[in-house]
UniProtKB/TrEMBL annotation:
Protein name per the record: Methionine ABC transporter ATP-binding protein
Top-level taxon of the source organism: Bacteria
Pfam families: ABC_tran (PF00005)
Segments of skewed composition (Low complexity): 340-357
Residues making up the signal peptide according to the UniProt record: none
Length: 416
């Protein structure tokens, strides 16, 4: 299982040029996270600070209780063995064939026999779907195959943390989709903590458990994917939809005068060059390929997010609840009742105890209700749906969907 990476108040600059300031986030153990941002916002610099290749001016990167920013070189050398890195261009040795490229970390950092090395290397090559290409040079294979070879090398030491720097760079949409599926499949098999740096919107919408964005030399946000995908922040909306109108400029942040001029052109009927479809909103996350085990990280993430759901923006709450299965939705309802000490209300707008908090009251109003014994059932509130774009008008003869009355639930193994 992967390990947690805690970043606390990290700041980095080159001379007088600040790259980003006071970046604080946590990569949950075993989960897949994506860091978005326009070109030049320091995403690759952030990865290099995570593995100690660059030293920040202040802040901490804590892994297994060790601060990589201040620990001795000997400790840093050992901590780096927890990492596997897929570099933006693959970073393969051009004079070595694929087998020797993948075997290089084993020969450098271990004392395994050549037979053991061969068994491990071939298993990783097989894992990324490159059996038969191990004897070829990097110049003899396609860009997508070089990416996969680089990923095999990143996996060869069985890392607990995998960093991917623009894994989709230079790939066509089809190969990008294959690589995205491969990363999800790897997470299902080895349960490693994965951080992907990218500006590919399809990857950001379908792959991660957690999603963040760098802009204006700071971390705009980081958290469950639904928070950013339903955000109304202008910079997030512009980036997700690929629009010219917004705070992001060609080379730097725009000033208010330029933004006002662009908005005036848009109001006058000029196109902003984007698609009509709004790319905000929660879409289904990729699942492991059939035949592979389900992702343990998805289960842990669901439990974690359910516990903090009431602290998230309302649009994100709706997106999360709409993505739950019926059983998971009912379990969440029961979990809220049991952990808050609040009896199930007899109807919307009522609380089960005199000490119920305002948040508990709100949750009780949003969730389906169970009628009191002997009372007539009250109308149940439909399950919330994501509000990223206006819903289609309902036909007059159709009534709103009714949620079935919840059934008793027993805490499943692993629930907190």
């Amino acid at each position: 299982m992967g390990v947690e990476v805690a970043v606390e108040g990290l700041s980095k600059s080159f001379g007088k040029q600040a790259i980003w300031r006071d970046v604080t986030l946590t990569l949950p153990s075993g989960e897949v996270s994506v860091l978005l941002g326009p070109s030049g916002t320091g995403k690759s610099v952030f990865l290099k600070c995570l593995i100690g290749l660059l030293k920040p001016e202040k802040g901490r990167v804590v892994i297994n209780g060790v601060d990589l920013c201040s620990c001795p070189e000997r400790d840093l050398y050992e901590i780096r063995k927890l990492f596997g890195v897929l570099f933006q261009d693959g970073a393969l040795f051009g004079s070595m064939n694929i087998f020797d490229n993948v075997a290089f970390p084993l020969r450098e950092h271990t004392r395994k026999s050549e037979k053991e090395v061969r068994d491990i290397v071939m298993s990783k090559i097989d894992m990324v779907g490159m059996l038969g290409a191990e004897g070829k040079l990097p110049g003899e294979i396609s860009g997508g195959m070089r990416k996969r070879a680089g990923l095999a090398r990143a996996l060869v030491l069985d890392p607990q943390i995998i960093l991917c720097d623009e894994p989709d760079s230079g790939l066509d949409p089809v190969r990008t989709a294959y690589l995205s599926q491969l990363l999800i499949d790897l997470n299902a098999q080895i349960d490693a903590t994965i951080l992907i740096v990218t500006h590919n919107i399809n990857v950001a919408r379908t792959v991660p458990d957690n999603l963040g964005m760098l802009f204006r030399k700071e971390l705009v946000m980081f958290g469950p994917r639904e928070v950013l995908l339903t955000s109304e922040e202008p910079v997030v909306e512009q980036f997700l939809n690929g629009r010219r109108i917004g705070p992001i400029g060609m080379s730097e942040e725009k000033d208010q005068a330029q933004m006002a001029q662009e908005q005036a052109h848009l109001d006058a009927g000029h196109s902003d060059g984007s698609l009509e479809e709004d790319m905000r909103g929660v879409v289904p996350q990729l699942e492991p390929t059939p035949g592979l085990p389900p992702r343990d990280a998805a289960r842990r993430r669901r439990q974690r997010v359910m516990q903090i759901l009431h602290t998230l923006p309302e649009s994100a709450q709706h997106g999360i609840l709409a993505s739950l299965s019926r059983d998971d939705y009912d379990r969440y309802q029961e979990w809220r009742r049991r952990t808050t000490g609040m009896a199930m209300p007899s109807g919307p707008g009522t609380t089960g105890t005199a000490t119920a908090t305002r948040e508990q009251t709100r949750v009780s109003q949003e969730l389906p209700t169970r009628p009191a014994a002997g009372a007539q059932p009250t109308q149940q509130i439909p399950r919330p749906v994501a509000q990223s774009r206006p819903p289609a008008p309902q036909q007059p003869q159709q009534s709103p969907p009714m949620r079935p009355r919840p059934r008793p639930w027993r805490r499943e193994e692993g629930d907190q």
